[in-house]
Specification:
Blueprint: H1 2-14, H2 18-32, H3 34-50, H4 55-64, H5 70-80, H6 86-112, H7 117-151, H8 160-178, H9 182-194, H10 200-226, H11 230-259, H12 267-274, H13 281-296, H14 305-323
Length: 327
């Protein structure tokens, strides 16, 4: 499951040309930093108020829901086709924030298992440092080696896609051996590095990965949904509706308002940014991983994380899917 998510994020990075980052940089940087913090604290408050859940489990849930799903944002943008800068901003936000959300979930998980404040601070700094070093360093190295091999035609055309996927998987696994969940940052960096070069080999790799992404997303949603019991959904259904409203009508607007202060965006563009923050497969997969670990450690409310995220995923897709076009 983790490798499937890695391949999905690699394809997302591969579909993010550098020119989009340059033209949307300020707003995107704020959305994935200050905006992510706002979403986290609003979601943390909402989870503690609405669910019978511990502070540690609520923090992991809030960190997971920081992400916006590029696997959902991309198809919605292709359908709506917004004019101007909002489309590239939303696409870039969805791709970049996924590894950030996964790292935030790991930090929340480590803190949830630690009672000592000093030890918790050390754990946070250690996770952030190792994630940046391993994720970015291994990502750049693997992407550079693969890029050089493609440039020098050292890889036969018919083996280009499988060898590229092998590089992605190896980079992901090695990075995760250094620091858990750093592999998601590694594969995103690899995709973004290769996206710099507009060549036939890269375009062929992107086309192949788009088809693979569709297959992986379909399989992952089925596998993750099959793990959820009906009674679990019934227990959190009504509170999850209120929680969904908090994310849609409080967290997202606050995130966009703060992130677009003193920018050239029009009020129409800002409203459209507020109306597009669906959660996708990365949130579902990461929540399943950490919820299982929290349950094994006996953290109260950990068993509620997956059904809550599942309902939020469905809810945000329905809300934003139907509202994005008219807005």
């Amino acid at each position: 499951m983790s490798i499937a998510v890695a391949l999905i994020l690699f394809e997302g990075g591969l579909d993010l040309p550098p020119r989009e980052l340059r033209s949307t940089g300020t707003v995107v940087r704020r959305l994935v930093s200050i905006g992510a913090l706002i979403t986290f604290f609003v979601a943390l408050w909402g989870a503690e108020q609405l669910f019978d859940i511990s502070r540690g489990a609520a923090a992991v849930l809030a960190a997971v829901l920081v992400v916006t799903g590029p696997t959902v944002v991309g198809p919605l943008l292709n359908f709506v086709r917004p004019n101007g800068r909002t489309g590239p901003m939303l696409r870039a936000e969805g791709i970049i924030i996924d590894p950030i959300g996964a790292t935030a979930s790991l930090i929340a998980f480590e803190v949830a298992l630690t009672n000592d404040t000093g030890e918790a601070l050390g754990a946070v700094l250690g996770v952030i440092g190792l994630t940046l070093v391993a994720g970015i360093g291994i990502g750049f190295f693997a992407a550079y080696v693969l890029d050089q091999a493609l440039r020098r035609f050292l890889i036969p055309d018919h083996l280009g896609n499988p060898i590229a996927l092998a590089f992605v998987i190896v980079g992901f696994v090695v990075s995760n051996q250094v620091q858990e969940e750093a592999g998601l940052l590694t594969v995103t960096v690899m995709g973004m590095w290769l996206a710099r070069r507009d060549s036939a080999a890269v375009r062929q790799l992107l086309e192949f990965n788009e088809s693979l992404r569709t297959l992986l997303i379909s399989a992952l949603f089925i596998l993750l949904a099959a793990r959820i019991q009906t009674d679990q959904l019934q227990d959190v259904a009504l509170p999850s509706l209120v929680f969904l409203a908090i994310l849609v009508f409080i967290a997202r607007p606050a995130t966009v308002i703060v992130s677009t202060i003193r920018t050239a965006l029009t009020w129409r563009e800002r409203i459209f940014l507020m109306s597009m923050a669906p959660r996708g497969i990365v949130a579902a997969a990461v929540s399943a991983i950490f919820a299982l670990r929290l349950e094994e450690r006996g953290i109260e409310g950990a068993e509620l994380i997956v059904p809550i995220v599942f309902l939020v995923n469905i809810g945000t897709i329905v809300v934003y899917g139907f509202s994005a076009g008219p807005i």
